[in-house]
Design brief:
The chain contains 6 helices and 12 strands. By secondary structure, it is an alpha+beta fold. The chain has one domain: CNF1/YfiH-like putative cysteine hydrolases.
Length: 251
């Protein structure tokens, strides 16, 4: 594992292995430099293949790479086919590797305290609103109070500007979600906010708490402002690379 990659700071059982990549440790050339395991962003296929091979050195089997669509489908590593349309993955079989790709969206890792099931979800605002975290919790098939969650690096609350329509979706679902939004300074003629700065970490914590998850860790990094360490779609546009967040039970 590259020393710049992020190991979750959560009290997971010893058999749970997980980390999140950064930009470092790969072979891709600018603007994807250097660790980009995403095959759909325009990077050279041979570079993506080499990056995935580098990641593969740390895992017993090939990660289950998904076709992510900002929805709430959940795949099962070891059972679902590669390229399945889903935004989350779980594994109950040791050695099967779950993975999601992000570049501003929030990756969320899961495991249970007994270390018998793990999972990871890709949670942008659309996925959060659609219920991807709740769907992952249900798919894991254990009491939610027995679960641990870890929030990886995502766009921070000083950079994630959204419209009123985004805020309205979350507040309609949960009035407490209003605490995750503050005006960005742009207003309508009558003084009402036109744009909001959203805290995706607060939104995720609220959803996880309502789902009954017993313990939540992580959060706080900003992919948008830390260009040296993270890819960011909002900052770099369609030619942005992706980070991978992976988890498995040790065989």
């Amino acid at each position: 594992m590259h020393p710049d990659w992020i190991v979750p700071d959560w009290p997971a059982p010893a058999q749970v292995r997980a980390y999140m990549t950064t930009r470092a440790g790969g072979v891709s050339l600018p603007p994807y430099a250097s660790m980009n395991p995403a095959a759909h962003v325009g990077d050279a296929p041979e570079a993506v293949a080499r990056n995935r091979a580098i990641l593969g050195q740390d895992w017993p089997t090939e990660p289950l790479w998904l076709d992510q669509v900002h929805g709430c489908g959940v795949a099962v590593a070891g059972e679902s086919p590669a390229g399945m349309t889903a935004d989350a993955c779980i594994a109950r079989t040791p050695g099967q590797v779950c993975a999601v790709l992000t570049a501003d969206c929030l990756p969320v890792l899961f495991c249970n305290r007994a270390g018998t099931v793990v999972g990871v979800a890709h949670a942008g605002w659309r996925g959060l609103a659609a219920g991807v975290l709740e769907a992952t919790v249900r798919a894991m098939g254990v009491p939610p109070g027995h679960l641990l969650a870890w929030l990886g690096a995502a766009i921070g609350p000083d950079a994630f500007e959204v419209g009123e329509e985004v805020r309205a979706v979350f507040v309609e679902q949960d009035p407490l979600a209003g605490t995750a939004f503050r005006p960005s300074g742009l207003t309508t003629l009558d003084g009402a906010p036109r744009k909001w700065l959203a805290d995706i970490y607060i939104l995720a914590r609220l959803r996880l708490a309502r789902a009954g998850v017993g313990e939540i860790h992580g959060g706080g990094a900003c992919t948008f402002t830390d260009a040296g360490r993270f890819h960011s779609y909002r900052r770099d546009g369609p030619r942005s690379g992706r980070m991978a967040t992976l988890v498995a039970l040790a065989p």
